[in-house]
Amino acid sequence: MPSLNVKQEKNQSFAGYSLPPANSHEIDLFSLIEVLWQAKRRILATVFAFACVGLLLSFLLPQT
What we know:
Layout lengths: L28 H10 L1 H21 L4
Subcellular location: Cell membrane
Pfam family, one: Wzz
Keywords: Cell membrane, Membrane, Transmembrane, Transmembrane helix
């Protein structure tokens, strides 16, 4: 089976977040909440966009 050559690119949008230690099996909930709070605009924009598309489709598709 041929090996895949995958480029490891650094994602610039996550550059400000620190990586957890490799041997930690715990979830830092405060850190998770902080990351979600920082991304709240993107999350709300995505939810709003899908809600608008759903409403648009529900009005445009014929009822059976």
